[in-house]
Design brief:
Elements: H1 4-22, H2 26-33, H3 41-54, E1 60-64, H4 71-86, E2 91-96, H5 99-114, H6 116-121, E3 126-127, E4 141-145, E5 147-148, E6 155-156, E7 161-166, E8 176-182, H7 188-192, H8 194-208, E9 212-222, H9 230-240, E10 248-251, H10 279-287, H11 290-297, E11 315-317, E12 323-324, E13 326-332, E14 344-352, E15 355-364, H12 368-381, E16 387-391, H13 396-403, E17 410-413, H14 419-431, E18 435-438, H15 446-455, H16 463-476, E19 485-486, E20 492-493
Parallel strand pairs: 1-9, 1-10, 2-7, 2-8, 8-9, 11-18, 13-16, 15-18, 15-20, 16-17
Antiparallel strand pairs: 3-4, 4-7, 5-6, 12-19, 13-14, 14-15
Helix pairs in contact: 1-2, 2-4, 3-4, 4-5, 14-16
């Protein structure tokens, strides 16, 4: 059994180790100066990237995270305080969407540096105790002041400083070793304003970027508001011109939807910080609007108005026609059943005159047996959708072979042209107002469908798009119409 003295000694050693780490790494610094800070796994990951930034291994870093997930505490409060401790001769410029928020961040940094716990870590790095002193300390800037060691009486002369401003503010006469940009867009109104986006771009290119000393380091932390925001413009420039700044991006959506980013350890469908925002909480947020959900929470801003299919071309129904002229099924099967694979999508479409109606949909990362079961179930639920269009790729031919003696009407379809060409060929159906989708009030899943359709070809998924273009291409080509048949269901998703 350990003695009390031994336990005390272990605690002291543990604290000393924490103290040593806090001088060099952001997460230990944060928990040392803010003992009540609640650490989730994504904070550790974020701090790993910020440590590389702090050590100048990454010079251009973007961090995309949802609102209220703790990013600003790390990037705009603790990080600049640690930069001062590590590099007391360096100059920092900090930007937020307006001067008021920028000043609030400045005051928070100053409070951290006033804390005795900070003085324990960096005893020679100080700022003036109050405004009006010989060295600057205001709500938007401060300077690192000289410090005389009380023992050896030697002076430490520092030239470091911190200056903050809102977007469009002035940094006249200031240089920067570090530029920290945090949420430069305030709200949807600013995000949708091309004039504001152009002003922000001009402020970055002509004011902030030109203030960098030598190579310098730039951090942009934000939630994504718009597909033409500052981050998008910089990333497009980096892709088009390899001599431009090249960025490292940490992208953490509120709910993981695909395996695009290997650094994200979550399973598909898992929330980023479930202790603060549960899956149920996030679904309530999602229900309030797909556009804000996609951009602010999932970091996938949609193209305003849509790409090939425009959002204002989408028409909805709450009541189906009593009878359809014909009904079909349209299937697009995935190759694998892993969580990272594509979705298997099966749709039922009905036609009444020139109008086409999406009646039901199956969508799942399904195993082969699950896909077989889904075809059987849809055929049972919609027996009048006798013709079943099955794309002749991935698992499609194997599904036909498996079910050919069980159900009839399966037709293998070879896609004509690439995915973009196929959707373009049926786009006039939407433009002319001849395509109807189930209203969200009867089909809550339709929001994801519309997002994928309007995002294409820039979106992360296209399985529902493939099923749609396959079905509409077949229906618009005509053929012999059978006798009118009754519809069934109301936008069912299995």
């Amino acid at each position: 059994m350990e003695t009390k003295d031994l336990l005390v000694q272990k605690l002291l050693l543990k604290r000393e180790l924490h103290k040593r780490q806090a001088r060099y790494r952001l997460l230990p610094f944060t928990t040392y100066t803010f003992p009540d800070y609640q650490v989730n796994w994504h904070h550790e990951l974020t701090c790993n990237y910020l440590d590389a930034f702090l050590n100048k291994k990454i010079r251009r870093l973007m961090i995309f995270e949802p609102p209220r997930h703790g990013k600003s505490e790390l990037t705009s409060r603790r990080l600049p305080a640690l930069i001062h401790g590590r590099y007391p001769n360096d100059e920092i410029l900090a930007v937020s969407y307006n001067a008021e928020l920028a000043s609030s961040m400045t005051i928070d940094v100053q409070r951290i540096m006033d804390n005795p716990l900070y003085e324990e870590l960096f005893p020679t790095v100080r700022i003036a105790k109050h405004s009006g002193a010989k060295y600057k300390r205001t709500s938007d800037e401060h300077e690192i002041i000289p410090y005389q060691d009380p023992v050896d009486k030697l002076w430490h002369w520092y030239t470091g400083s911190y200056k903050s401003a809102g977007v469009g503010g002035s940094f006249t006469g200031r240089g920067a070793n570090w530029s920290l940009i945090d949420d430069p867009i305030k709200n949807r109104e600013d995000a949708d304003s091309k004039a504001f986006r152009n002003m922000l771009w001009s402020f970055y290119t002509s004011t902030l970027r030109t203030r960098m000393e030598g190579e310098g380091s730039i951090l942009i932390t934000l939630t994504r508001w718009h597909d033409d925001d500052l981050a998008s413009r910089l990333l497009r420039l980096a892709q088009a011109d390899k001599t431009a700044d090249q960025w490292v991006v940490l992208n953490l959506p509120a709910i993981k939807e695909h395996e695009r980013d290997s650094y994200d350890p979550r399973e598909i469908g898992e929330p980023l910080w479930p202790d603060k925002f549960s899956y149920q909480d996030l679904m309530k947020i999602k229900a309030m609007g797909m556009r804000d959900w996609s951009s602010l929470w999932q970091q996938e801003p949609t193209v305003e108005g849509g790409n090939i299919i425009k959002s204002d071309q989408i028409k909805y129904y709450t009541v189906q026609p009593e009878r359809y002229d014909r009904m079909i099924q349209s299937w697009d099967f995935a190759t694998k059943d892993k969580a990272s694979s594509d979705f298997t999508v099966g749709q039922v479409w009905g036609q009444k005159g020139a109008n086409k109606y999406l009646v039901a949909q199956f969508r799942k990362r399904a195993s082969f047996p699950e896909a077989v079961k889904a075809v059987l179930q849809m055929s049972k639920d919609y027996p009048l959708a006798h013709k079943k269009l099955i794309e002749g790729k991935a698992n499609g031919p194997a599904i036909i072979q498996t079910l050919k003696d069980s159900i009839s009407g399966m037709v293998e379809v070879e896609p004509r042209g690439d995915k973009v060409a196929r959707l373009n060929s049926v786009a006039p159906e939407f433009e002319s107002g001849n395509v109807y989708l189930p209203d969200p009030s009867i089909a809550p899943w339709i929001g994801d469908y519309v997002k994928e359709l309007c995002d294409f070809p820039a979106g992360s998924n296209d399985d529902q798009v493939d099923g749609t273009s396959q079905a509409l291409d077949h229906l618009r080509r005509g053929g012999i119409l059978r006798a009118p048949i009754s519809g069934h269901g109301s936008g069912t998703i299995y």
